[in-house]
Amino acid sequence: MLQDQTFLRAPGPTPVPDRVKHAMNEPMIGHRSPSFAQLFADTSERLKPIFGTTQPVYTLTASGTAALEAAVTNTVPKGEKVIVVVAGAFGDRFANICEHNGYPTHRLEVEWGRSVSPEDLKNTLQEHPDAKAVLLTYNETSTGVMHPIGELSEKVHQYSEALVLVDGVSCIGGVPGNMDHWNLDVLVTGSQKAMMLPPGLSFVSLSKRAEAKLTDGNPSFYLNLKAYQKQLENSMTPYTPAVSLIQGVKEVSEMMKEETLDHVFERHHLMKDMTRAGIKALGLPLLTSEEDASPTVTSVKETAEFKPDELRSLLSKQFGLTLAGGQKELKGKIFRIGHMGYCSPVDILTTLSMIEMGLKQLGVEIELGKGVKAAQEVYVQNV
Amino acid sequence: MLQDQTFLRAPGPTPVPDRVKHAMNEPMIGHRSPSFAQLFADTSERLKPIFGTTQPVYTLTASGTAALEAAVTNTVPKGEKVIVVVAGAFGDRFANICEHNGYPTHRLEVEWGRSVSPEDLKNTLQEHPDAKAVLLTYNETSTGVMHPIGELSEKVHQYSEALVLVDGVSCIGGVPGNMDHWNLDVLVTGSQKAMMLPPGLSFVSLSKRAEAKLTDGNPSFYLNLKAYQKQLENSMTPYTPAVSLIQGVKEVSEMMKEETLDHVFERHHLMKDMTRAGIKALGLPLLTSEEDASPTVTSVKETAEFKPDELRSLLSKQFGLTLAGGQKELKGKIFRIGHMGYCSPVDILTTLSMIEMGLKQLGVEIELGKGVKAAQEVYVQNV
Lengths: 383, 383
What we know:
Chains A, B: InterPro entries: Aminotrans_V_dom (IPR000192), Aminotrans_V_PyrdxlP_BS (IPR020578), PyrdxlP-dep_Trfase (IPR015424), PyrdxlP-dep_Trfase_major (IPR015421), PyrdxlP-dep_Trfase_small (IPR015422), SP_NH2Trfase/AEP_transaminase (IPR024169). Two copies of one chain form a homodimer. Chain A has two domains: 7-14 and 260-382, Aspartate Aminotransferase, domain 1; 19-258, Aspartate Aminotransferase, domain 2. Helices cover 42% and strands 14% of the residues of chain A. The first copy, chain A, is built from 13 helices and 14 strands. In chain A, strand 3, helix 4 and strand 4 (105-109) form a beta-alpha-beta unit. Chains A and B meet through helix 3, helix 4 and helix 9 of A and helix 3, helix 4 and helix 9 of B.
């Protein structure tokens, strides 16, 4: 419609606020300068409440995948068994990382679109008492399922000595990190999802117990967290960091502080509720149950009346709206709406209205405005 | 003087042109979208002439150190011997990467401030006929020495079957890559030096011979170049890339194309000549010989009259000028002037004039303006 207007509603990367762009446009500074040390000391401190920890949070110049690889290779000795909950493409990636690095890997497979039950995890722990770590996905981006990490972590600690490693890439910044409260041993996230930054940074924090596992001899030089730990003591990074993105971290954390973290988390819950109410009002099937639903991404299933990829393609061409499709076994079968980071209730209404118009054009029998109205009702009931 | 004026003349990170900032401020796009594929196909193609190759150039979301680790771990089987030329802190880092990854590593140590002689390399090759790779630093950032990579590569190919792996981090984009012409097997660079971008990306290209060594089983999951190779065929990256920086790659390559690569290289040579002429005219000792001198960074030695770190500190406070100090064994003994990327002959005059005023204030007996004048003379003789 308007040539260069775009609406990025994929579950990452997400839109970058103008304030953050301005911050990233600040003059470049040397990464060994006192100005950088001051900035980095500050951002490293600001990440702690977002992670829900008093432990240091390390900043890696790399995507989330690298930080996930660092999480396991730094804390689990080579050759030891790990359990990975696989309930979607990112659980699968976490397992691939382990297998690639030679860990005997037990995959606890869960139907895509459901969360793992703490009871199933308990049984798996009992079948594999030699597992040294349990790898969980906080929010499975590929399905829009949020796992009950607190309960799962409790089970692990109750039935084993295994470390709890959590992939929080597609939710941290939008939901509580709760790392200390839930006794998570490693929590990882990336910059480009609920953290409102461009991709390029990832963040990882270790419990004292996980920290004690660090050695100089980790498989990878670049991902050896011992080096990051040593350098963070001088408010530095071991290798040249993505300075402009770190200038952005300061600004996003300031924005979250101004909004208050509690409100950030409530906003994400509200956007989830609005999205789900809108989709349900249109008569479209949601992939996940109310209980499993993610505050950052919602998956909608195909029906006999429309193909998700056709809808996505039409909305992209006509409005510049980006929705995500399904991955791997869900390819072509769902579309996903990202509602995290720099996204507001009004953005949800806009998104739903475009989806309605797209469906209508594809001949789906829906009533225009009905999804938007249902979402509005959720909004007014909740403010 | 002017509160927020800064002059970043460190050998990386370097200033980012406004045009590039604007490009990086473009709306975020999904990394699995056709728009990204189009952008990435374009930037990957644009990097080839900068590398001097017709081979693919892979883009990693990580610092140069990660790409150097990828260079060796992807092309040299675990346990095989490597020769590393160590003539400064970055040769030392390249060797550390090898040692960390368990390669038997022969360090060919060269006095810091000098280039390695092709004859010495030949002798080392003959002493270590079992070496599977020779690791070279094109431009040693810590000393300001440029090694004769073409000649060195020729020696390696003449006397052995070893691969030639080259760290071009602090010069590619400012000097010819010449990868194909010199038969380099791996060439690596980073975004934050002569490439005029913020840090956060690194680039690596492999000869056909090196490419044939790629396997799925590389030690690191994140740095497995096979995955990058497969995805580049779809104009994608295997893991979420730093999209905004890649938007910047397009712009910097466009700027280089407009200026022409030949002129970019000439400008760097001219800036080197101006800097050296200015420093010599002030009677200060240069660390490197004319023959070894780097087009991207110049090191100046201490004298009885001044301490480099005092000069740097004064210039930083008074003018916002960032110069680099010495590293490791040169700590406190030199200062380094970066003249690469978004840096012009006029910037060299400004830098020299500030250095003159700083030296004067420290009581060094110099004639104000003499260095600037010598540099101006070089300029007018060369245009």
